[in-house]
Specification:
272 residues, alpha/beta, Elongation Factor Tu (Ef-tu), domain 3, Rossmann fold, globular, binds flavin-adenine dinucleotide, binds FE2/S2 (inorganic) cluster
Length: 272
C-alpha cells in the first residue's frame, strides 16, 4: 500500500542551542512531538522559518539525537539550504515536517556494526544509543575526510567508536571500508563459507549511512562476509512525503522513493 501523502505534521520549532562541531553545526530544537515519535534513521524536511523564500524548498535533515523534548540536528553547510540552516542561532525558528521515512529496523538481537561516512554519521549516534539500550553489542566505525569533520565522532557517547580520516589528521588513516572485514570477523561474521557461527550466536548486522561509494563498498564487504546490512541512502528531495517522485532510486524491485519507502534499504536491494 502507498504511504499517505501527509504522514506527519508541520511544526514551528525554536532553536535553543547552536554551536559549531568542527566543520558542522549542531542545532537543538524544541520539537516535542517529533522527539516523542522519531525512530533512529528517520528524517525531517527542514527550512528556516520566517525568512525569505530563498531557498524555496525545505531540505532533508535526519534526527541526530533526542534529549527529552529536544531534537538535535547536525548540519554540514554545502549549499544554499544547509548554509541557511547552519546560520541559525538561539531564538531563530525552524519549520519542521516530520518525522519522515522508515528508519532502521533495530529489532534483531545480535551484535551491531554501525558504519558512517562524513555527515552520514549524523543519524548514527541516536541509532547506536538505541541499539545499546536494547542490549545489543555495538561498535562504530566512522570515516571522515579530515579532522574538521572527524571531531563529530566525539558526539557519540557510551559506545565503542573508531575514527578514520583520509589524511590521518585524527584517528587512524584510511578508508572506512578497509577495517570492515576484520571488525565483522571479530564480531562473529566471517567470509562466506567459513561459518563464523559455530557457537550458534548471531553474526554482526551492519547499519550504514554515508556517500554512495562508501555504501557500495559496505555492500560488497557485507556480501562477502554474509552479514546482513541496512543502508541509509541520500537523494535530492523536493516534497519528502512520496508525492513528487523526485527522489527515486533504482532497486532490485524497480524504482523506489527514498523519502517514503526509505531512506533505509537492505543492502542487496540497491542497484548500484
Ligand atoms: C534522508 C536524508 C538525511 C539527511 N540528513 C542530513 C543531515 O542530518 N545533515 C546534513 O547536513 N545533511 C543531511 N542530508 C543532506 C542534505 O539534505 C543536503 O546536503 C542538502 O539537501 C543540500 O542542500 P543545499 O541547498 O545546502 O545544497 P545544494 O546547493 O542543493 O547542493 C550542494 C551540493 O551538494 C550536493 N547534494 C545536495 N543534496 C545531496 C544529497 N542528498 N546527496 C548527495 N549530494 C547532494 C549537490 O549536488 C551539490 O554538489 C540528508 C539527506 C537525506 C536524503
Ligand atoms: S521527495 Fe517527493 S517523492 Fe520523494
Amino acid at each position: 500500500m502507498d504511504a499517505p501523502l501527509i504522514p506527519a505534521n508541520l511544526y514551528d520549532c525554536p532553536v535553543v542551542e547552536s554551536r559549531p562541531v568542527g566543520a558542522y553545526r549542531l542545532l537543538s530544537l524544541v520539537a516535542r512531538e517529533v522527539a516523542s515519535l522519531a525512530r533512529p534513521g528517520q528524517f525531517m524536511m527542514v527550512r528556516a522559518a520566517g525568512q525569505s523564500l530563498d531557498p524555496l524548498l525545505p531540505r532533508p535533515i535526519c534526527v541526530h539525537e533526542i534529549d527529552s523534548d529536544l531534537v538535535k540536528v547536525l548540519i554540514e553547510p554545502v549549499g544554499r539550504g544547509t548554509v541557511s540552516l547552519a546560520d541559525l542561532r538561539v531564538g531563530d525558528r525552524l519549520s519542521v515536517l516530520g518525522p519522515l521515512g522508515n528508519g532502521f529496523d533495530i529489532t534483531a538481537s545480535g551484535p551491531a556494526l554501525v558504519v558512517g561516512g562524513g555527515i552520514g554519521a549524523a543519524p548514527l549516534a541516536f541509532l547506536a544509543r538505541a541499539l545499546a539500550e536494547r542490549g545489543r553489542e555495538v561498535r562504530c566505525l566512522l570515516g571522515f575526510r579530515t579532522r574538521g569533520q572527524a571531531v563529530a565522532g566525539k558526539l557519540f557517547r557510551d559506545v565503542e567508536v573508531d575514527i578514520f580520516t583520509e589524511d590521518g589528521s585524527m584517528g587512524k588513516q584510511g578508508l572506512i571500508s578497509e577495517p570492515l572485514p576484520g571488525c565483522l570477523a571479530e564480531m562473529g561474521s566471517g567470509p562466506r563459507g567459513e561459518g563464523a557461527d559455530s557457537s550458534g550466536q548471531e553474526g554482526a548486522e551492519i547499519f550504514a549511512c554515508g556517500p554512495d561509494p562508501m555504501l557500495a563498498a559496505v555492500t560488497r564487504v557485507a556480501r562477502d562476509c554474509g552479514a546482513p546490512a541496512q543502508l541509509s541512502v541520500a537523494a535530492h528531495m523536493a516534497c519528502g512525503v512520496g508525492a513528487c517522485q523526485g527522489c527515486v532510486i533504482n532497486t532490485t524491485s524497480g524504482y523506489r522513493r527514498v523519502c517514503s519507502e526509505g531512506p533505509v534499504f537492505a543492502a542487496g536491494e540497491i542497484a548500484w
